[in-house]
């Protein structure tokens, strides 16, 4: 039996975290010749994940440069993948989620009539500018994909409403839950010594990330002002803010929160440190998409620092709450969770709608079925 060549493509740390367990699963399949191509849309943070999961890329486009633009990323990915695809002639490529690498990879494959599988397909806000450019990256990739691996029933419904053939859409759960089974340890000791000194048992430690493009400027300033208030009003609270390296974010955060008591500003941590910090913290405040899926798996309430989310299931299940960047709304919502145990337990005990740890296995099974490598009965994730 001739093996089918599958090239998995990703370029950022969030993509790498979610694609790593799938790469490892594909490596086990006898009928699949699994290859990995990284664009390095993000370089250092991507490499951390590759090391953690022991993944050695077969192709590295290494496109990252200072002050890169969306147009520049798109052009470089298209040109780099044109050569890779021409030489390798894969049977299918796999892309993930919503990055510029994702859309450009799908478009490059389309130009050479190569099949596309879209992992984490179907997430929508239905506003093309929020989040920007992620919403349109997802939608355009969905138009190019041949297999759609939707993490939830809601994301599948979104695809069907857009006219995608139901036979091409599968509910798999989210691969990030698979990844967390590998990274989270109850007896974990941090490599960052500052984190080892924090009293997670007796302090209410809030983990924060905020860096999305739509929050640049006034949004980040409001978030920082709100965080100052939360700390001032709650003596048992400490903040750990993982500050994005982009100067647009970093300069504002350092100016407003630097040197403040009970506020710890750290650079982005590697995946294992981040997941274990999340596991030990009291709650999470973020504008990240991935953390909205990861934190509920660990029973941590999430306040989402955005006005809309492409992950509405968590809102419906009650594991996350949208608070936007309004100072009073952020402060009031945080204080409620800090001081009202009933409200806290309501969020922390809610079921996580995003996965059971078997998403990667389902996706690999579906691919084998698609190419008639084996006949496997697929049990979709239907929480």
Automatic annotation (TrEMBL):
Gene3D superfamilies recorded: Glycogen Phosphorylase B
Family: Belongs to the UDP-N-acetylglucosamine 2-epimerase family.
Domain UDP-N-acetylglucosamine 2-epimerase: 24-368
GO MF term set: UDP-N-acetylglucosamine 2-epimerase activity
UniProt-recorded name of the protein: UDP-N-acetylglucosamine 2-epimerase (non-hydrolyzing)
UniProt cross-references to SUPFAM superfamilies, sorted A to Z: UDP-Glycosyltransferase/glycogen phosphorylase
Keywords: Isomerase
InterPro entries named among the record's database cross-references: UDP_GlcNAc_Epimerase_2_dom, WecB-like
Record carries keyword Aminoacyl-tRNA synthetase: no
E.C. code: 5.1.3.14
Keyword hit for Membrane: no
């Amino acid at each position: 039996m001739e093996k089918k060549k599958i090239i998995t493509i990703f370029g950022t740390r969030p993509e790498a975290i979610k694609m790593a367990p799938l790469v490892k699963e594909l490596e086990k399949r006898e009928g699949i010749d699994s290859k990995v191509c990284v664009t390095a849309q993000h370089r250092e943070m991507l490499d951390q994940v590759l090391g953690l999961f022991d993944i050695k890329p077969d192709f590295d486009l290494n496109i990252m440069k200072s002050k890169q633009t969306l147009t520049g990323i798109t052009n470089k990915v298209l040109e780099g993948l044109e050569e890779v695809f021409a030489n390798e002639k894969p049977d299918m490529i796999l892309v993930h989620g919503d990055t510029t690498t994702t859309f450009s990879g799908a478009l490059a494959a389309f130009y050479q009539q190569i099949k596309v599988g879209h992992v984490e397909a179907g997430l929508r806000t239905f506003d093309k500018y929020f989040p920007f450019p992620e919403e349109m990256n997802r939608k355009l990739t969905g138009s190019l994909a041949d297999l759609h691996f939707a993490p939830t029933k809601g994301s599948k419904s979104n695809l069907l409403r857009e006219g995608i053939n139901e036979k091409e859409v599968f509910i798999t759960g989210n691969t990030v839950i698979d990844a967390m089974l590998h990274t989270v340890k109850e007896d974990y000791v941090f490599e960052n010594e500052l984190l080892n000194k924090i009293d997670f048992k007796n302090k209410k430690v809030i983990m924060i990330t905020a860096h999305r493009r739509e929050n640049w400027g006034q949004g980040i300033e409001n978030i920082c002002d709100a965080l100052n208030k939360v700390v001032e009003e709650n003596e048992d609270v400490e903040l750990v803010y993982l500050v994005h390296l982009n100067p647009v974010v970093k300069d504002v955060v350092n100016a407003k929160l630097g040197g403040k008591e009970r506020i710890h500003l750290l650079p982005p941590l590697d995946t294992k440190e981040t997941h274990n910090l999340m596991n030990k913290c009291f709650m999470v405040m973020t504008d990240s998409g991935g953390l909205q899926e990861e934190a509920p798996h660990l029973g941590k309430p999430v306040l989402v620092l955005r006005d809309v989310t492409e992950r509405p299931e968590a809102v419906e299940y009650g594991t996350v709450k949208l608070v936007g960047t309004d100072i009073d709304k952020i402060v009031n919502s945080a204080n409620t969770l800090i001081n009202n145990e009933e409200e806290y337990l309501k969020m922390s005990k809610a079921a996580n709608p995003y996965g059971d740890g078997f998403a990667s296995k389902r996706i690999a099974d579906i691919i084998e079925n698609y190419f008639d490598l084996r006949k496997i009965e697929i049990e979709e994730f239907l929480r």
